[in-house]
UniProtKB/TrEMBL annotation:
Organism whose genome encodes this protein: Citreimonas salinaria
Any one GO BP annotation for this protein: phospholipid transport
Top-rank taxon, per record: Bacteria
Full protein name: Phospholipid/cholesterol/gamma-HCH transport system substrate-binding protein
InterPro entries per the UniProt record, alphabetical: ABC_MlaD (IPR030970), Mce/MlaD (IPR003399), MlaD_Phospholipid_Transporter (IPR052336)
């Protein structure tokens, strides 16, 4: 009997450890069962380097993430949904842009706050957008030069 009791205790400890690790991983990565924020929508000409789960930053601090990207078949633009933390209020004259972490870094979405005393609410659309700048296009323009 003591042999099977020891096995049950060890199994229970392993299971408790696995559950604890899972909860810790969810907290660190920001995953949760219930959404904790509000959605904003934007339409970009190009979202190169951005995918679902990409960080949304304000002044370099993560304040949300990209939750949905879809091609609009009428405008051929990337319709994007971002989720912003509830405790972060974004002025309604703010811009949203695709920024790069550096020459070899990835892209992220940056919020550039305006000065309005009014704020975006859940489901609002940000109309001031700036798309990703293609590094290849910049290099080609530099190498090719511009005729003047």
């Amino acid at each position: 009997m003591s042999h099977s009791t020891a096995e049950v205790l060890v199994g229970g400890c392993v299971l408790a450890g696995a559950l604890g690790f899972g909860l810790y991983a969810m907290q660190v990565t920001g995953l949760s069962a219930a959404p904790q924020g509000y959605d904003l929508h934007a339409s970009f000409r190009s979202l190169e380097g951005v995918s679902v789960g990409t960080d949304v930053r304000l002044a370099g601090v993560k304040v949300g993430s990209v939750t949905d990207i879809a091609l609009n078949p009428e405008t051929y633009r990337a319709d994007t949904t971002v989720q912003i933390r509830d405790d972060v209020l974004i002025p309604d004259d703010s811009a949203i842009l695709v920024a790069s972490e550096g020459l070899l870094g990835g892209n992220y979405v940056e919020l550039s706050p305006g000065g309005s005393p009014f704020f975006y609410g859940a489901g609002d659309r940000i109309t001031d957008t700036q798309s990703a700048v293609s590094l290849i296009s910049l290099l080609m323009a530099f190498v090719g030069g511009s005729p003047e």
